[in-house]
Amino acid sequence: MTALHSTRRDRPGGPPVRRIPFPTVDEVSRHCLQDEEPDTVHLEVHLPGRPEPGRLRAAFAEALRRHPRILMREAPGPWFRRRYEWELTGDADVDPVSFPPPGPDALDAARARALSLCPPLSASPPVRLEVITSEGAGGGCVLLLTINHTALDGPACLRVLATAAELYGGAANSPAPPPVRAARPARTATDRASAPASAPAAGSGWARPVRIAADTPAVATGNGMLIAELPVPRRAPRCPGGMPPYTVNDQLLVATGLMVARWNLLHGRPTGPVRVTMPVDDRPRGTDMPIGNGTRLVDVTVSPADRADEELLTAVRPDPDAVARLLRRTAERTRALKAAPRPPLGRGGALLTAPVLPVGARAVVTRRLRRAFAPWTSTTLLSNIGRVPYPLDFGDAGRAHAVWFSAPARMPRGLTVTTAGTSGRLHLALRWSRALLDEQAAATLARLFAQALNVTDMTEVLDASDITRDATAGGAG
C-alpha cells in the first residue's frame, strides 16, 4: 500500500484531506497527457428500466464514500517538486451525476463526450456519470461513466458502480466466484514426445512489431468508437480431468492478431509480427478491491512458429489446423507472461518515476522517450474484462443486460480492442485514433475481427449481417 502523507483540512469543518504520491502508472499517464487525444475510459451499462434520479444520486455518492480512493484530486504544486500527489478529499468537490435531456441522439452525444471531454484532475472525483433515458414509454436507460484514466481504470469504476447498485436496489451485488478450473492432467510419454522442446519464445523485445495500416482521408484529432455484440466463442473441449488448451482470452488475442494481419494484407503492408498489449488484473473483486489503476501490462506476440503458416492464417478462410497451432502457441505465451512477476509498466516505468529529478524534468524525459521508442510500441491493445462479475442489479430499474467499455486509442498504436461478457454475449468496442482510421475503416476492422473470432472456435465464418452494430460514436475532430 502507498504510504499516506500528513493530513490537512481543505475547508473549515470539512473532512481531513490526505495526500498520497502518484503510483507509477498514474505518473507516466500524467506526463503524456495530450489535449488532442484525451486519456478517457468509457464505460456504459444498459438497464431495462429507469432509476429514480434522487435515489441514484444518493446511492452513487455513498458508493464513492465507501471507496474513498476514488474521491481524490491532483494536489497543486510547482514543477520542481519530486512527486505528483493525490489529495483524498473524503467528499466530492462536484456532483458527478447528471441527467441529460432524452432524445434520439442523446446516447451518441454522451458517447462523443466520453471520448472528447475528460473529467479534470483538479476536482474530486475524476469521473462523470451521465444517465441517458429512452424517449419511448417503458424504455430503459444507459449509465455512461467517463473516467480520467490518469486516476482510475475501468474495473475499479465497475466495482464502485456495483456498490452503487447494491445501495440503490437493496440486493447483494457480490462478485460471482470465478469458474473452477480442474488441474491439468499429468503428461503422458506420448504428450512429452510430441511437445516442443521448450515454451515458445515471446519474440525479441527489440523486434519492431507491425503497425496497423492507416486508412483515413484526412488528418484529424480525437478518437472514434464502434460497439458491437457478438457470440462468445466456444473453447476447445477439455482433456479428461484437465483444462482446455486455451481460454477465451487467448481466442480474443488470436482474433486481434488475425484481424490486424488480414487488414494489413488488404492494404499491401507486412502481416507480422503482431504484438498485443494485454492488461493483467490480479485484484480481488469484492468491496476490498483496490481502487485506482491496478493492472500490469504485458506484451503478447501473436505470430506462428512456422512462417509457412502466415499465408494459411491470412487466407479468406484461415486453415483450421494453422489457427489451432497459433492458439496453443499464444496460450503458452500468455500463461508464462501472467505467471512472471513484473512491475505495472516494467522496470523502465519504475526507473522513470523514481523521485530523483523534479517531476517537470521527468515529464520531459518521459515524453521524449515515448517518441523515440514509438516504433517499438506494440501494435494494438486488447483489454478483456471477461465475464462481468457483478449482477449490477438496480432494483426497480432492473439488472444490466449489456456492458461496454473502451480504452484510449492514442498514437502510435491508434487502435484498442475492449471486450466484456454479459448475458451470454460478448460486448466489443473498437476505439481508434482519427489520425489513423475513419468510421468506414473501423467498420471493416470490426467485420474482420468477428470473422477471425469465429474461426477460433472452428465454426463457419460469420457473415457481416450477424454483427449487431449498436452505434458509432465520434470523438473530437
SSE layout and pairing:
Elements: E1 8-9, E2 16-21, H1 24-31, E3 40-47, H2 53-66, E4 72-74, E5 85-88, E6 97-98, H3 106-116, E7 127-133, E8 141-148, H4 154-169, H5 189-194, E9 223-231, H6 248-266, E10 274-280, E11 296-302, H7 308-313, H8 320-339, H9 346-352, H10 359-372, E12 380-387, E13 402-406, E14 415-422, E15 425-433, H11 439-455, E16 468-473
Parallel strand pairs: 6-7, 10-12, 12-14
Antiparallel strand pairs: 1-2, 2-5, 3-8, 3-13, 4-5, 7-8, 9-15, 9-16, 10-11, 14-15
Helix pairs in contact: 2-4, 6-8, 6-11
What does this structure look like?
The N terminus and C terminus are likely disordered. Helix 2 packs across helix 4. Strand 6, helix 3 and strand 7 form a beta-alpha-beta unit. This protein is α+β, with helices and mostly antiparallel strands and 477 residues long. 29% of the residues lie in helices and 21% in strands. A seven-stranded mixed β-sheet has the order 11-10-12-14-15-9-16. A five-stranded mixed β-sheet has the order 6-7-8-3-13, sandwiched between helices. A four-stranded antiparallel β-sheet has the order 1-2-5-4, with no helix packed on it. The chain has eleven helices and 16 strands.
Overview in brief:
This protein is of the alpha+beta class and 477 residues long. The chain has helices at 24-31, 53-66, 106-116, 154-169, 189-194, 248-266, 308-313, 320-339, 346-352, 359-372, 439-455; strands at 8-9, 16-21, 40-47, 72-74, 85-88, 97-98, 127-133, 141-148, 223-231, 274-280, 296-302, 380-387, 402-406, 415-422, 425-433, 468-473.
